[in-house]
Amino acid sequence: MPTNQNLKALRDSRNITVREVELESRRIAEAKGDKRFYISNARLTQLENDPSSEPSLWKLFSLSAIYNVRFTELMRFYNLDTDKTDEYNAIATPGGTRLLPDMPHAYRTTEFLKDLIKMPEKTTLLPRLVPSVDDKSDVAKLDGDSQFTSYGYIGLDDFTMYPLIRPGSFVWLDTRQNKLRLIARRTEYERPVYFVELRDGYSCAWCELQGNQLLLIPHHSSPVSIRRFTHPKEAEIVGRVVKFSTPWVDQGSGDSETPKRQKH
Question: What is the pTM of this model?
Answer without folding.
Answer: 0.59
